[in-house]
């Protein structure tokens, strides 16, 4: 029986880093070669997105444990975009990557169960190893996802303390003297602790932003059995040092996402002159390797693969 929390630990140890490359294709940011001689209609965009993401995967598959396709950019292209998303996910799986689908789904009852059964597990029609979900309809909306994830050995990442500036409007509201995000965190922690793998981590994880390093440390202490998916690194201002508190002493426990900062690295000042559009894949590789090196230098990730790491 698969166990996502354990599979994630194995993949992170194998790669000696916890980097997740976000696949967030945007038409205006694609290298020129993907836009030239193409109409900008949604079907053409979808084809370009699939080609681009496949070529990103070719670069990062030997380097990192997981990718995170963002469903919204594919959905924007309609049916052709959804087919492109399915093809990209299958391609990434075939390359040995874990696939975390960023869909932030939720609903109640049978609808939540339908989302879960459609997306979760490699036996599902979408074949996602894990899915991001929203908690704000309450525990009865989350339980169908948890049940299917456990049944299929898949994973979940529940929005707890997100990286965006406006997240505090709800997440920081005090309920019985504590912020709402702590109530959500307790639910996730309980689910994680209830079904841990050999490494001590469960398959129900939490989304906690790198842009709030104090809360990241607070939540790591409160959720010792929970994998964190950490957005906000790079383009949103989060640094390797900001993520340090997300990890346990062995360098496990957190996956650090970087989307635009890697896939569109050819546009960043530090890579533009050396690579540019014509060598955009080289920029992707350089940005990925630089991120790995920064995490290894600034966090416990540097202990992965050491002789005292289990």
- Mean pLDDT equals 95
Global Rg:
19 Å
Total number of strands? 10
Per the CATH scheme, the topology name is: TIM Barrel
How is the main sheet built?
Answer: 8 strands, parallel, barrel
Q: Regions with pLDDT < 50 over 5+ consecutive residues?
A: none
Spatial arrangement of strands, main beta sheet? 1-2-3-4-5-8-9-10
CATH architecture: Alpha-Beta Barrel
Distance between the termini: 22 Å
Count, helices: 13
List SSEs in N-to-C order: HEHHEHHEHEHEHEEHEHEEHHH
Domain Orotidine 5'-phosphate decarboxylase: 18-275
GO molecular function: orotidine-5'-phosphate decarboxylase activity
Family: Belongs to the OMP decarboxylase family. Type 2 subfamily.
Catalytic activity: orotidine 5'-phosphate + H(+) = UMP + CO2
Features:
lyase, OMPdecase_type-2, 310 residues, globular, two-stranded antiparallel ribbon, 44% helix, EC 4.1.1.23, alpha/beta
Written overview of the protein:
It comes from Bythopirellula goksoeyrii. There is one protein chain. The chain is an alpha/beta fold and 310 residues long. It has one domain (4-303): Aldolase class I (TIM Barrel), CATH 3.20.20. Helices cover 44% and strands 15% of the residues. It has helices spanning 4-15, 32-35, 42-60, 71-75, 78-94, 109-119, 139-152, 168-171, 180-193, 213-222, 260-263, 269-272, 280-298, and strands at 19-23, 66-69, 98-105, 130-133, 155-161, 174-175, 178-179, 204-208, 228-230, 254-258. Strands 1-2-3-4-5-8-9-10 form an eight-stranded parallel barrel, surrounded by eight helices. A hairpin with a 2-residue loop joins strand 6 (174-175) and strand 7. The chain is globular. The model has no long low-confidence stretch (mean pLDDT 95).
């Amino acid at each position: 029986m698969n166990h996502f929390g354990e599979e994630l630990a194995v993949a992170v140890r194998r790669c000696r880093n916890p980097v997740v490359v976000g696949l967030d294709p945007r038409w205006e940011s694609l290298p020129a070669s993907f836009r030239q001689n193409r109409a900008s209609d949604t079907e053409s965009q979808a084809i370009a997105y699939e080609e681009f993401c496949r070529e990103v995967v070719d670069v990062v598959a030997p380097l990192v444990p997981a990718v995170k396709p963002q469903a919204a950019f594919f959905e924007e292209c309609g049916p052709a975009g959804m087919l492109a998303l399915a093809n990209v996910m299958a391609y990434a799986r075939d390359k040995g990557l874990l696939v975390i689908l960023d869909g932030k789904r939720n609903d109640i009852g049978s609808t939540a169960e339908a989302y879960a059964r459609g997306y979760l597990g490699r036996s599902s029609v979408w074949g996602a190893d894990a899915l991001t979900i929203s908690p704000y309809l309450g525990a009865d909306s989350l339980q169908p996802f948890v049940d299917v994830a456990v049944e299929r050995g898949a994973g979940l990442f529940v929005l707890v303390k997100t990286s965006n500036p406006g997240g505090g409007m709800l997440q920081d509201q005090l309920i019985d003297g504590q912020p709402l995000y702590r109530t959500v965190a307790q639910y996730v922690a309980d689910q994680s602790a209830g079904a841990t793998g050999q490494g001590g981590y469960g398959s129900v994880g939490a989304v906690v932003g790198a842009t709030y390093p104090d809360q990241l440390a607070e939540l790591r202490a409160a959720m010792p059995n929970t994998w964190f998916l950490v957005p906000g690194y790079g383009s949103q201002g989060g640094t390797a040092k900001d993520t340090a508190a997300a990890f346990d002493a062995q360098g496990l426990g957190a996956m650090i996402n970087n989307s635009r900062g890697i896939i569109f690295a050819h546009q960043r000042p530090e890579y533009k002159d050396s690579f540019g559009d014509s060598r955009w894949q080289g920029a992707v590789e350089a940005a990925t390797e630089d991120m790995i090196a920064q995490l290894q230098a600034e966090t416990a990730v540097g202990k992965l693969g050491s002789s005292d790491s289990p």
